[in-house]
Fold this protein.
Amino acid sequence: MAAASEAPLPAADTKPVRLTGLAALRLGFDFAREPLIATRRAHEAFGPFVMLDRALPLVRAKHTVMLGVPLVLTAGAAFHAELLSDTDTWRGVSLLPGGPRGSAARRIGSGLTRLTGEKHTHYRKLVLQPLRRGAVEVVAGRMARIAEAEVASWPLGEAIDLWHYVRRIMRRLALDLLFGGENEESGAIADLVSVLMERKWGTGAFALPLDLPFTTYGRIVRDAAELERRMLEWVAEKRGRPDARDLAAIIVNSADADGRPPDEAAIVGQLASLFAASSEASQSALTWTLFLLIAHPRVAADLRDEVRQKLGAGAAALERAAELAYLDAVVKESMRLLPPVPIQLRVAQCDTTIAGHPVPNNTRVMLNTFLTNRAGELYPQGDAFRPERWSALAPSMFEFPVFSAGPHACPGYWFGSLAVKIALAAILARCRMELPPGARVDYAVQPTFRPRRRLAVVLRRADDGKPAAAAIAGTIRDLVRFP
Ligand code: HEM
């Protein structure tokens, strides 16, 4: 094994490099445009621990811009270990927007990632019921049938938007297997949650936090109210009908953290964030794995051989996808190279320290999984897609923080991993993909790693022709070294 599994602590002499004034503003501006490249450059120039003091546009709390509170950029397992282990001091942020006091937008932003202490333990235990390994293994057969049926409807011979088609599979798996079934209402709720996430992370809405008819922030406030209304109507039917496989039925029929029947704010806060977390990261993982396979035809051919020889055809075979060693290595390598959640945010709850250096209350820290996953000593040639490396690797969760680590580590690990593997095997069994001539692949971080615009691929029958290496243009070339 090449890697230790113990979490390292920051070396006592890891000193922050402080950037102020113009230098801090310039990095803040670059970061807003292209976060992964900006942080990589900062890391190369200044090391793994950079403090931006007075980085005006990026730092705000309670709708006031705060001066003098640093934004800290970190990379490396040691920082992940220090911050993710101390959840009393370092709070996570919501995927959903937040908004004015007393608004639905504020209520939908109060899910698991923001909770601490006993409240967090209480809801995490509830949420884990259908997400534990044993519970997920029980639904593997249904997962395989759903994935196979979805892929059977993909139009061979045509160009499709890969992000959109993968979304259909991942959303259906989540709604059918974790939210009591996909139907018009649960589908509309999932759509509204996605729109709100896009508005929070893709539009700069919080630069002008004014609730007016024409501002993005105003639309967030109105959409959140609509989401809350629909969600409460939808869960009303689940009251009095406990179901350990349905996250909504679990939340609505369980006491809250104080032992009282859950009020509307608690229900909406938990469910909105569960919808947000349940399919988009898996969608990102599967989309980029398929893209990397298009760009690496030899890996794709080896993987297809493994699927054919070890699984054969049909849903009964697909449900065993987790047993395939090369498929496991391909998915891990894809998530290492292009992590579905490339940057994690943490906010200090009090005056504290990082690697022994004092930082004030409210300091924002970016834990950079994208860079940690490229640490040279563990992952040589970090920009290259080399699934083979996983035959000799067993990193700790801090060294490979794709699902985060510590008390807030992703509870959807088993469900998400199995869903991605089964869907990937189902796709490989039926289709081969090509990029159309002149295709450009640009990425965005919102906060999941996703294509910036339509990701067009042409679908072929699995055994139709021989795949050739594709010429790839676009910003993705800044992150991956293609053959
Ligand atoms: C490949 C798939 C997935 C990846 C890569 C992934 C990744 C992550 C990451 C990095 C976090 C930490 C976020 C942070 O603290 O900033 C997280 C948290 C979380 N994930 Fe996932 N996730 C995946 C699938 C899922 C699925 C299927 C669910 C199902 C509901 C889920 C539910 C959650 C929840 C509830 C949290 C918050 C946990 C807490 O704060 O205690 N995830 N995930």
In short: Residues 273 and 308 are 38 Å apart (CA to CA). Residues 1-5, 56-66 have pLDDT under 50 and may be disordered. The pocket of protoporphyrin IX containing FE is lined by residues 92, 112-113, 124, 127, 131, 178, 274, 277-278, 281-282, 285, 340-341, 344, 402-404, 408, 410-412, 415-416, 420 (CB under 6 Å).
